[in-house]
């Protein structure tokens, strides 16, 4: 059965509480499309140590992210869910690819520039710079044809394609499948509620920055009611940066309700102001997250089930990843063990 379906791979770092950005940009489209694909979804824990991290929190968040995948509807009978570090081939292929990656390609990456700018220059880890190489290894190991991600990962996907092409040129055109990016039609870039010109991120510490998937309804209401808008009152989609707050709220509403932009603008044309918009957005978010949160609570009553699923997922992933790694090692000139 799986032979006819395209292979997809994607993952999220357990680097904090998952946001509605992570849900709308990534997990929602994974769940919606899993029937169409031979799908592999991993918790990319090795990526989470590219910035300062707490070991106990990493352990806790790795399991939490896996439970959120399941709670959001990723069905382990259709999709393979696993933890990146459980499949050693990710680290091994990453080294082989690192040695073929020009430094200039890495210095160009926007995410590296943004994240390194927030740290003391001398304490920025080499891992943060080579993050895209590990991400390329994640994807290429599975010969993934499609990678469903949010808009911020577009550049890393381009990097992966360039690196795969370089490897194919050096070691044979059939070494790696060249993956395509898949970006959702709505919710591909959710912005911070406190600063609608910056992407909503799970690692951003400000209290009013993000709505988390596991936030209580009252917290969601509070955060959305306090979100930054502007001094106008028109409730319309807009790419004018001064109207980014309202545009972001409308985008969140659209992604959660699946209505067209025209229907949404018509719906809010009689609203009395941004207060009405915020209330409606908060209720749409709360209503959509409620069944996910309920399922999450049930799933985490016994974490052994989650650990068992992750062990099965890793075993299945390992078989594919090791096959690709062996081919690359052989083509690069390593003696087989
Ligand atoms: N704001 C967002 N809007 C839409 N999609 C988003 N994604 C992240 N933020 C948004 C998508 O979620 C997946 C998570 O990727 P990641 O955890 O590997 O890293 P990231 O893209 O850097 O996400 P964060 O939340 O900003 O994490 P931190 O703060 O740890 O760096 C990807 O598919 C991403 O596109």
User: How much is the radius of gyration in Å?
Assistant: 21 Å
Taking the alpha carbons of the first and last residues, their distance comes to: 33 Å
Low-confidence stretches: none
Q: What's the structural domain tally? A: 2
What proportion strand? 5-15%
* Tally of helical runs: 12
The residue-averaged pLDDT reads 96
Largest sheet: 3 strands, parallel
- What spatial order of strands do you see in the largest sheet? 1-2-3
Order of helices and strands: EHEHEHHHHEHEHHHHH
How many extended strands?
Answer: 5
Specify the helix fraction band: 40-55%
CATH fold-level assignment of the largest domain: Rossmann fold
Quaternary class: single chain
Q: Note the overall shape.
A: globular
> What ions, cofactors and ligands are bound?
adenosine-5'-tetraphosphate
* CATH homologous group name of the largest domain: HUPs
- The top-level CATH class of the largest domain is Alpha Beta
Protein model, in words:
The structure is a single chain. The chain contains twelve helices and five strands. It is 52% helix and 7% strand. The longest helix has 30 residues, at 303-332. Helix 3 packs across helix 6, helix 8 runs antiparallel to helix 11 (274-299) and helix 9 (244-257) packs across helix 11 (274-299). It has a three-stranded parallel sheet with strand order 1-2-3. It has two domains: 2-183 and 302-332, HUPs (Rossmann fold); 217-297, Tyrosyl-Transfer RNA Synthetase. With 337 residues, the chain is mainly alpha-helical. The chain starts with 5 loop residues before the first strand and ends in a 5-residue tail after the last helix. Strand 2 (37-43), helix 2 and strand 3 form a beta-alpha-beta unit. The structure holds adenosine-5'-tetraphosphate. Residues 12-13, 15-16, 19, 21-22, 24-26, 44, 47, 149-150, 152-153, 188-190, 199-203 line the site of adenosine-5'-tetraphosphate.
């Amino acid at each position: 059965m799986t032979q006819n379906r395209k292979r997809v791979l994607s993952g999220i770092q357990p680097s904090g509480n998952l946001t509605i950005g992570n849900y709308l940009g990534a997990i929602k489209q994974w769940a919606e499309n899993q029937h169409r694909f031979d799908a592999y979804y991993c918790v990319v824990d090795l990526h989470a140590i590219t910035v300062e991290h707490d070991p106990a929190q990493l352990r806790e968040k790795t399991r939490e992210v896996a439970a959120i995948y399941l709670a959001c509807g990723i069905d382990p009978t259709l999709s393979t869910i696993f933890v990146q570090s459980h499949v050693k081939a990710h680290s091994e292929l990453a080294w082989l690819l690192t040695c073929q990656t020009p430094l200039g390609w890495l210095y160009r990456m926007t995410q590296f520039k943004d994240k390194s700018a927030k740290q003391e220059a001398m304490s920025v880890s080499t891992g943060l710079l080579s993050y895209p190489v590990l991400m390329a290894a994640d994807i290429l190991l599975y010969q993934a044809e499609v990678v469903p991600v949010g808009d911020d990962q577009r550049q890393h996907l381009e990097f992966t394609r360039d690196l795969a092409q370089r490897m194919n040129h050096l070691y044979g055109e059939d070494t790696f499948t060249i993956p395509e990016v898949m970006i959702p039609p709505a919710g591909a870039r959710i912005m911070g509620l406190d600063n609608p010109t910056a992407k909503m991120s799970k690692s951003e510490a400000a209290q009013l920055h993000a709505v988390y998937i596991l936030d209580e309804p009252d917290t969601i209401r509070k955060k959305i009611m306090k979100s930054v808008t502007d001094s106008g009152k028109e409730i319309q989609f807009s790419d004018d940066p001064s109207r980014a707050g309202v545009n972001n709220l409308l985008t969140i509403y659209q992604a959660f309700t699946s209505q067209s932009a025209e229907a949404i603008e018509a719906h809010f044309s009689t609203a009395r102001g941004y207060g009405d918009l915020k209330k409606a957005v908060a209720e749409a978010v709360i209503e959509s997250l409620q069944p996910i949160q309920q399922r999450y609570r049930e799933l985490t009553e016994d974490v052994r089930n989650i650990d068992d699923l992750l062990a099965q997922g890793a075993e299945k992933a390992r078989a594919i990843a090791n096959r690709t790694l062996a081919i690359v090692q052989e083509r690069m000139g390593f003696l087989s063990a």
